[in-house]
Write a structure and sequence with these properties.
It is globular and about 55 Å long. With 138 residues, it is mainly α. It starts with a helix and ends in a 9-residue tail after the last helix. It has five helices and no strands.
Length: 138
Amino acid sequence: MQSYLTVKVKITQIREKVSYMPNFEEHFGISAITGLVAYVAAKKQAGGEPVTAGEAIGVAILSGAAGALPDAIEPPTSPKHRKFFHSTASLGILIAANRKLATESHASDTKALFAALSVAYAMHLLADSGTSAGLPLY
């Protein structure tokens, strides 16, 4: 049977892991990868041309930048730096914009790129939502 102290130490260790605030490199890397995957999937679904190496590199860089954007707008000076651009409301606006764009007649590349950048931005919010500070509603 575990002692009270052992259980308390384990809970503290879990809290420390959960309250960890991702840094620029982590946001950029996660967003670059997920944005590229979203772009390839969206182009394939639309029946577009295969993605070239140059296109993939460009989308990955733009996606990484989109994923770093919330912290560029609201710099991470403390865990409480999150305002509108780190909120669930900003995520809702991105979802609505994607739904609107999907109904309009734009090139599949444009739709795929916007989807990729939106997914990349959302990945930043997802990573931050797991911290003790979480995300504000708006």
